[in-house]
């Protein structure tokens, strides 16, 4: 164990409102040096506001920020860095056009107020930083050419180098493979040795249970539970996060016996992403596909929809082989696709809810003389708002006015409006609150009962177990295993993945 | 591997283009390969290069500036007007140069306010300010051509570093400006690569949010960039006036395209984050060669503009195709790594 | 109560910019009528404005379309001149020594001119939609290329002395209203109908808001963008023909100042430079405002360069205003979303 004096870092009785709305009310949190702490909470629980206060982006209305011996009523970003508070954001905040060494060293130069910049000094700073966390990387490579896991290590090295005392990691494992997560945890162990107070912001309960020592759970800007990690059970964490007691029991509808196939995928191959992919989906079947990041699961889903190149293979929809590498052919054949990132791929953010709801297959809203029929648009919009229970006062409000869960329903609705035979959902409930998640899964169930086939791509194992009839596991671009309804459970999937 | 990398570099392609073009022009008309012609190419590139260095810096930072030619002529012309008004007639050109640079920086500062403080898209902001500057210049400062520019400036036009009279042919004059221009070029290169300001400019072009999180002040860097362009454009403007031996407020407007073309051909990415001084120098030389020697190639001078447009179109198209190839490769390589 | 209020508010929000502009238009009119009651507030001036507004308005509508998709078309003036030159060339070569030309030949000349303009637009479409070159640069390059070709072919000389019956279109009246004005109204109605009442129009707004999401929604984003630059070229060609008809001449360097002016109009007209939002009414009103400023300045004997400065100032001012209002709106919507 560390022989350093243990110092405490955190906040006390923080209150923060934005224009009358309380984002944080009376939040206190304390992390000892050399400990790994977890902040868990849903979107909008105040996690990011808290990080922003600690890193000097926002000033709290009242309360204190405590960093070791010192106490502040607010911090500037520079002060935060000087006092050793560092945040690793999900996008790592790296510059793709600069080298690894430059990305690590630039903040050091800034903290020294240097005017000049030397290659030799940069190399020295970068190497020593990587040494500190026991990582070996090519420091002359451009950041745009390296893997996501390496990017994360660079971000950590950079933070360490600045004399980090308190390190926030925002959802650090979402983009990592199991092996890379293990490596990351080793690096975190090193940070512990060096007396860094590390804060994991995550909702992946398995991982936080593995690495974290203490936990604080936020909901609606309040601390609803905190304490030692070992005192918490899986269910109690998720219950505290949501305030609901939502069971994760299976809701998949019974599957009718049939030899009919909605789609048959034959020997799909794209070098080097995936190969030998063959499977078929029956009407009303919900097929899950999972795999680690980089396994090729997202690429496979996009390939079927014509958004990722296919080198060879066949897609048969209703006995006919459809044209590959064409989204419009996929659309015509009755395939729909909900992409993983609704903000950048799914929605037209500043546009109205109505326009978002009709964005797919706009041509079907033609009335007389090939003109756009406003009545049909409004009718369709109102129908979907009602059917999917999208909470809004006015369909002509921008879609940004909706919560994450309602936004996801809009993306879902624009595809359901096409009444596809096969709906591909990539991460259907990413970043939506648990209540909405449940409702979205129920929408999937109801449609499946009506005969719509689903391909659900997800890394959310409990969700797959809850909703799917069958799950395929992809490893290194190949189907490594297929589990049917009888075999399906969480343990077996986790085991297959690791 | 390294050899291959070298071949793929933009600079290599440019050098090859320059060599081939020179060979073709030289084969058609032997007078191309005279010292006099070489020195003329230099002389006609000085002002262009200064502007180009300014534009390079903005483009690396991820922006664009179309107001620099107006800033240049505004500064050069106003400096002359000021000197005439106060009857300053110094023996050397330091005063007008300093004046022009100062005016350029002031105008650049206005761009900085629009861009850094208010976040107006750079093209729109500089398009707007170029209208303002040109309007002010021609309405309030002067709209007539000044031929009796201060003596120091006039004399500087013929300040030759060396004169070589070959056995036959024209006298070759190498202007003294070659030295300060070379020094400035090297200084800009050092600034970009060896100072924190320079690295911050590249960082800014790589991504605004990430730059901010590195602790670099985005606004301050942007502000400095546009002031730098203003200053260097002011310098270019006064040198232009001096080399032309007259101050014409209608000049330079509309020349932004040649410069932007040179910088983009030199390998700077219009999306920001990439670009080198060496590439820019080559780009300027290529454009000067084409502009100055189309006639030697037997093409009428009136096709100059079309040639530059075509060259720029080819340059950016190649850049765009490379970019999409790179994106494709990157996509494959990340899945490759993860798949081990 | 609160609910109803917010509904009312959002309903108005879309038209608020237009309402603001109407107020600005009225104010501009009032001010100039007051300061220059004899010259500005005269039927002669109104008539002359009605002849000048259409050209700018049609070019601005072209820029508006590209801006709605998040791009920009800087080649409008080059295309408009190219179309006019081709048409003028055919007309002058066909009429010989005569003063007029048969209607059939005039129509053929205009059609061929328009086809050439469309071909230029097709190059823009290809480079932007298919090769993914940034629109600013792509159209800067193609604009220079088209303009350069025009200069090369004509040697920079303008073509004048067009048939009298052709000139009657640009200088005549239709039921007492200047013909170009009538044409503008028809074009504005058609384009307004296109963007508001056709599926392609709706796609223009969506592609401009989020290209990636448009891709995933399989609306043929490339096709949408390709169409926009084609239509932009068509409108530019028509503007070119109207200009030729009004001035009885076509020249490769006519109206280079129209690019800045069109962008000022579009931004003042409330089109979001990042794409996705804007109305044609806004563009027409903004054209009227700027034309009144121009005529007013003329009446007050301000120089044309003062008008240039005013254009730049308006552009910067409107952008700053937009930024400030946007910041207020964002901070308010953050607090609102937190409250709900």
Q: Can you describe this structure in just a few lines?
A:
The complex is a heterotrimer of chains A (498), B (340) and C (340). Chain A is of the alpha/beta class.
Strand content of chain C: under 5%
Q: Secondary-structure element order of chain C, as H and E?
A: HHHHHEHEEHHHHEHHH
Q: What is the CATH topology assignment of chain C?
A: ABC transporter involved in vitamin B12 uptake, BtuC
Q: Tell me the count of domains of chain A.
A: 2
Portion of residues within helices of chain C: over 70%
Please give a structural write-up.
The complex is a heterotrimer of chains A (498), B (340) and C (340). Chain A is of the alpha/beta class and 498 residues long. Chain A is built from 17 helices and 20 strands. Helix content of chain A is 34%, strand content 24%. In chain A, the strands form 4 sheets. In chain A, strands 6-7-8-3-9-10 form a 6-stranded mixed β-sheet, with helices on both faces. In chain A, helix 3 packs parallel to helix 5. Chain A starts with 7 loop residues before the first strand and ends with a helix. The mean pLDDT of chain A is 87. With 340 residues, chain B is mainly α. Chain B has one domain (34-322): ABC transporter involved in vitamin B12 uptake, BtuC (Orthogonal Bundle), CATH 1.10.3470. Chain B contains 14 helices and 2 strands. Chain B has helices at 2-8, 10-28, 35-60, 68-85, 94-117, 122-141, 151-156, 178-194, 196-206, 208-213, 218-244, 256-265, 277-293, 304-339, and strands at residues 160-164, 172-175. Chain B has a two-stranded antiparallel sheet. In chain B, strand 1 (160-164) and strand 2 (172-175) form a beta hairpin. In chain B, helix 3 runs antiparallel to helix 11, helix 3 packs across helix 12 and helix 8 (178-194) packs across helix 9 (196-206). The longest helix of chain B is centred in the last third of the chain and has 36 residues, at 304-339. Chain B is globular, with a radius of gyration of 21 Å. The two termini of chain B are 23 Å apart. The model of chain B is unreliable at 332-340 (pLDDT under 50). In chain C, a hairpin with a 2-residue loop joins strand 2 (173-174) and strand 3 (177-178). Chain C is globular. In chain C, 78% of the residues lie in helices and 2% in strands. Chain C has 340 residues and is mainly alpha-helical. Chains in contact: A-B, A-C, B-C. At the B-C interface, helix 6, helix 12 and helix 14 of B face helix 5, helix 11 and helix 13 of C.
């Amino acid at each position: 164990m560390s022989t350093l004096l243990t110092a405490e870092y955190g906040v006390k009785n923080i209150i923060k409102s934005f224009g009358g709305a309380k984002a944080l009310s009376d939040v206190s949190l304390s992390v000892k040096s050399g400990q790994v702490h977890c902040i868990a909470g849903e979107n909008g629980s105040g996690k990011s506001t808290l990080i922003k206060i600690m890193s000097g982006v926002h000033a709290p209305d009242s309360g204190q920020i405590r960093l070791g011996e010192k106490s502040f009523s607010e911090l500037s970003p520079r002060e935060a860095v000087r006092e050793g508070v560092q945040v690793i954001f999900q996008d790592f905040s790296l510059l793709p056009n600069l080298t690894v060494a430059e990305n690590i060293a630039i903040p050091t130069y800034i903290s020294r107020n240097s005017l000049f910049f030397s290659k030799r000094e940069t190399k020295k700073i970068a190497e020593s930083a990587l040494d500190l966390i026991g990582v070996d990387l090519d420091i002359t490579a451009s950041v745009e050419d390296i893997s996501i896991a390496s990017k994360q290590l660079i971000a950590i090295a950079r933070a360490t180098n600045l004399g980090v005392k308190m390190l926030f990691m925002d959802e650090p494992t979402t983009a990592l493979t199991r092996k890379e997560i293990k490596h990351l945890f080793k690096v975190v162990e090193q940070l512990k040795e060096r007396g860094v107070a590390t804060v994991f912001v995550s909702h992946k309960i398995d991982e936080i249970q593995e690495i974290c020592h203490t936990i604080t759970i936020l909901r609606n800007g309040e601390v609803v539970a905190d304490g030692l990690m070992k005192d918490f059970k899986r269910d109690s964490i998720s219950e505290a996060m949501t305030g609901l007691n939502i069971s994760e029991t299976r809701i998949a509808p019974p599957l009718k016996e049939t030899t009919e196939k909605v789609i048959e995928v034959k020997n799909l191959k794209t070098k080097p992403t995936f190969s030998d992919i063959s499977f078929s989906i029956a009407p009303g079947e919900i097929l899950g596909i999972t795999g680690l990041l980089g396994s090729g699961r997202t690429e496979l889903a996009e390939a079927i929809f014509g958004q990722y190149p296919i080198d060879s293979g066949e897609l048969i929809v209703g006995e006919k082989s459809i044209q590959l590498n064409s989204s419009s052919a996929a659309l015509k054949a009755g395939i729909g696709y909900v992409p993983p990132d609704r903000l950048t791929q799914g929605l037209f953010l500043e546009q109205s809810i109505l326009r978002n709801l009709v964005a797919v297959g706009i041509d079907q809203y033609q009335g007389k003389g090939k003109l756009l029929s406003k009545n049909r648009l409004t009718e369709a919009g109102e129908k979907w708002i009602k059917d999917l229970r999208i909470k809004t006062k006015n369909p002509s409000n921008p879609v940004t006015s909706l919560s994450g869960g309602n936004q996801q329903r809009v993306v879902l609705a624009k595809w359901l409006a096409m009444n596809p035979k096969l709906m591909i959902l990539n991460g259907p409930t990413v970043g939506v609150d648990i209540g909405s998640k449940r409702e979205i899964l129920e929408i999937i169930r109801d449609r499946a009962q009506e005969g719509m086939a689903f391909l659900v791509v997800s890394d959310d194992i409990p969700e797959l177990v809850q909703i799917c009839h069958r799950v395929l596991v992809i490893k290194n671009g190949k189907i490594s295993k297929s589990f049917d309804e009888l075999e399906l459970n969480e343990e077996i999937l986790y085991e297959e993945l690791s | 591997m390294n050899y291959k990398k070298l071949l793929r570099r933009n600079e290599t392609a440019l050098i090859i283009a320059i060599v081939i073009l020179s060979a073709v022009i030289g084969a058609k008309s032997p007078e191309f390969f005279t010292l006099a012609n070489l020195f003329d190419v230099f002389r006609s590139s000085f002002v262009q290069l200064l502007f180009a260095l300014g534009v390079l810096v903005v483009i690396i930072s991820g922006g664009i500036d179309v107001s620099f030619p107006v800033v240049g002529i505004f500064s050069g012309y106003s400096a002359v007007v000021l000197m005439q008004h106060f009857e300053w007639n110094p023996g050397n050109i330091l005063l007008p140069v300093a004046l022009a640079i100062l005016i350029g920086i002031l105008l650049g500062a206005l761009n900085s306010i629009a861009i850094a403080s208010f976040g107006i898209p750079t093209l729109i902001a500089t398009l707007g300010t170029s209208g303002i500057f040109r309007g002010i210049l021609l309405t309030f400062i002067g709209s007539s051509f000044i031929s009796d520019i201060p003596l120091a400036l006039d004399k500087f036009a013929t300040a030759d570093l060396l004169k070589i009279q070959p056995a036959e042919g024209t006298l070759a004059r190498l202007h003294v400006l070659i030295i300060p221009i070379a020094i400035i070029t090297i200084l800009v290169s050092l600034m970009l690569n060896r100072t924190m300001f320079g690295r911050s400019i590249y960082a800014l072009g790589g991504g605004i949010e990430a730059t901010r999180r590195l602790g670099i002040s985005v606004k301050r860097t942007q502000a400095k960039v546009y002031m730098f362009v203003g200053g260097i454009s002011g310098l270019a403007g006064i040198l232009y006036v001096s080399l032309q031996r007259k101050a014409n407020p209608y000049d330079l407007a509309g020349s932004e395209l040649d410069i932007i073309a040179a910088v983009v051909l030199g390998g700077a990415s219009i999306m920001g984050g990439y670009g080198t001084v060496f590439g820019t120098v080559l780009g300027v030389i290529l454009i000067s060669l084409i502009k100055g020697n189309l006639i030697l190639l037997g093409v009428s001078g009136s096709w100059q503009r079309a040639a530059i447009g075509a060259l720029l179109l080819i340059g950016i198209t190649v850049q765009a195709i490379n970019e999409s190839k790179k994106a494709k490769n990157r996509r494959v390589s990340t899945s490759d790594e993860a798949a081990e | 109560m609160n609910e109803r209020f917010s509904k009312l508010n959002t309903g108005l929000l879309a038209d608020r910019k237009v309402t603001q502009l109407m107020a600005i238009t009225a104010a501009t009119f009032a001010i100039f009528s007051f300061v220059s009651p004899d010259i500005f507030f005269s039927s002669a001036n109104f008539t002359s404005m009605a002849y000048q507004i259409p050209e700018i308005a049609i070019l601005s509508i072209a820029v508006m379309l590209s801006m709605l998709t998040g791009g920009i078309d800087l080649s409008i003036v080059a295309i408009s001149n190219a179309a006019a030159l081709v048409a003028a060339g055919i007309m002058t070569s066909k009429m010989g020594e005569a003063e007029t030309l048969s209607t059939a030949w005039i129509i053929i000349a205009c059609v061929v001119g328009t086809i050439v303009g469309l071909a230029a637009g097709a190059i823009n479409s290809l480079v932007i939609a298919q090769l993914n070159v940034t629109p600013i640069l792509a159209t800067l390059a193609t604009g220079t290329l088209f303009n350069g070709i025009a200069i090369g072919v004509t040697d920079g000389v303008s073509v004048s002395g067009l048939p009298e019956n052709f000139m009657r279109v640009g200088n005549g009246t239709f039921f007492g209203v200047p013909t170009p004005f009538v044409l503008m109204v028809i074009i504005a109605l058609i384009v307004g109908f296109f963007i508001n009442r056709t599926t392609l129009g709706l796609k223009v707004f969506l592609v401009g808001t989020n290209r990636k999401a448009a891709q995933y929604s399989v609306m043929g984003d490339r096709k949408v963008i390709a169409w926009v630059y084609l239509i932009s070229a068509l409108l530019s060609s028509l503007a070119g023909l109207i200009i030729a008809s009004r001035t009885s001449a076509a020249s490769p360097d006519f109206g280079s100042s129209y690019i800045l002016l069109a962008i000022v109009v579009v931004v003042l007209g409330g089109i979001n430079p990042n794409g996705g939002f804007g109305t044609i009414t806004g563009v027409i009103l903004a054209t009227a405002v700027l034309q009144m400023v121009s005529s007013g300045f003329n009446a007050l004997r301000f120089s044309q360069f003062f008008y240039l400065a005013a254009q730049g100032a308006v552009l910067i001012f409107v952008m700053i205003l937009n930024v400030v209002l946007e910041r207020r709106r964002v901070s308010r919507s953050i607090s609102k979303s937190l409250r709900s």
